[in-house]
Structure formats: C-alpha cells, structure tokens
UniProtKB/TrEMBL annotation:
Pfam families: FlgD, FlgD_ig
Matching InterPro entries: FlgD, FlgD/Vpr_Ig-like
Protein name: Basal-body rod modification protein FlgD
Native organism: Roseibium aestuarii
Lineage of origin: Bacteria, Pseudomonadati, Pseudomonadota, Alphaproteobacteria, Hyphomicrobiales
FlgD/Vpr Ig-like domain location: 108-178
Amino acid sequence: MTISTVNSAATTTTSSSTSSTQQASLGISSSDFLSLMVEQLMNQNPLDPTDTDSYLDKLVSYASYDTQVSISEDLQNVVDNITTTLAANGIGYVGMTVEAKGSTNTLEDGAASWNYTLNSNAESVKIKVLNESGVVVYSETGSTSAGAHSFTWDGVTSSGEQMADGGTYTIQIDATDSDGDDVDGFTTVIGVVTGVDYSGGEAVLNIGDAEVAIDNILSVHTS
C-alpha cells in the first residue's frame, strides 16, 4: 500500500435553539400574559382589587423579554455566520492542531507525525520517509494489525544524520498480507496550522511548508 500526498480538512457549523428553549421553559408569551391580565381584571374581587401597578410592571417585563428573544436570535445568527465563514476560509484553523488525510508533513521541533490505518491485518509493514526529492531517508518496520497506528519521526536519517527543521517529508506505507498481496489503507498527517494560502483560488491550510486541503481534515484540536 503506497499513499500519495493528499492533505485536507473538514468544517463544522454550530447552531443553537436558544430562543425556542427559552420560550418552552417560560411556557407563555406576552400575548398570553395580556389575555390572562384582562381575564383577571374582569374577575377580580371588588373588595380586594388587583394591584394594577404590579400588572404593569410584569407587562413591561414581558415586552422586554420578547425584545431580548429577538435580539438573541439575531446575535446567534451572527455567531453562526461568523463560525461558518471562519471555517470556510480556513482562518479559524490557524493555531490549531489538525489531523487530515495525507502523507506529507513538515519537520518541526525535531519531529514529524503521521498516522496510518490498515483495512485488514498484514504480514509485513514497512514505513518509509521520503524527502522532497522522493529519496528514502529513513525506514523501519511497522505494526501489522488492522486499524490505526501512530508514527513519529525524529528527523534522524537511517545513516544517523539529523535533518534540519522546516523540511517537508512524505510517509509511504508498504503493507502486504501472507500471500504477498497489498493491504489497503490510508495515511494522515498531524500538525499545527500555521497559515492559510489563497493563491490557488481556494483556501489551503499550511502545516509548516506542507499543504492541507480543508475538505480532508478529520479532526481539530486546540494546541
């Protein structure tokens, strides 16, 4: 199984039912209150009349509540629009650690991290790290069981040379079963989003010098 360089991200949107929840918890609207007030006044005890000042205070409170609900709905719409816009243009991902389908990552602070997933058990797994020229600079055997596995490279080549931070490297997984047939799977890259590139007409996230397409992001975490 050989994985080509594909990096990407997913977006999420947030919605709220604040006003409907508030309405449900209250149980009645200001219109309902007016009807109850008129009914109360019509059936009040003449010897013990209802305090109209108290009713007026409550009426003002209910009118204010309706206004607050309307404002709350408008504010929530603004928040939803901002959240959607930030996710769509990629700015909201800057500074966050993401995992995205792909195979190319940047060596930062002496480490580059990937995950690889096997769809079934393998007999043999070989992990290879390739430099920007496609030359294998490091290799080791990997876990053969079906499922997800993590791999972090410390930037030291098979010959013992420590590579400098900032370079981009691609992971390649060669997995075969007991019959020598390829085992299917995929790789993901993990890193902190450092910027957004719009030069290609679409927002592409940067993890160091590596690029991640927004549509391929699998998970997002605050750093």
